[in-house]
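Quick log. Single chain, no ligands specified.
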Amino acid sequence: MEDRKHFIDELEKLKMMLLNMAALTQKAFIRANQAYLTRDEALSREIIDGDRAINDIEVQIDNLSLRLLALEQPMARDLRLIIGTTRISSELERIADQAVNIAERTLFLCQHPPLAPIQAMDRLMEVTGNMLDHAIRSFADLDPKKAMSIREMDDAADQWTMEVLQTLIDNMVQNFPAGEKRLINTRRSVQTIIISRCLERVGDHSTNIGEHVAFISTGINVKHQKVL
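-> predicted structure:
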């Protein structure tokens, strides 16, 4: 009985570690978007420097998960929780990497005059932010319905990404005279396109987290299914 209680406590510890990692990752993503929108170099550097803490938690989660698998030989949902947690931590680490990528591109953009505001970029940030928030909440509640609802937002993320791309392509083909001004305009546009792709990838990783949560909760692998 005491052994079971210890195991349950360790599972709760694992879940709390992941939620802590998720909170730090979400904060990094929100701050990366803010840094881009406000052209904040100092904030961009803070995001880059803070990535190590998220990486460290992923390592801790892996170590605890391996120890539980080796010593406890869990079954059924307990096993799915441990496996799912390691998968979700990997997705969160990649989201944090995308936040760093956005911050790095922002540092470049801050060295040049700003592009005109892009409405589609604002919408893309909004929808991918909502996807990540739903993903984290679905794990906290182990709610498969909330988890699978993230898929419904993915088409909107793809649409806004394409609109950002089209806007910036149109910007690059403007009739700038050949020379430094055209070169800078092209570089700014390319870096902003890369940021939009980072945002899209955050949406993809959030969708993956939702699928892992559904697996933990139901035991069904929904990765290649259209519906739960």
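The chain is about 85% helix and 0% strand.
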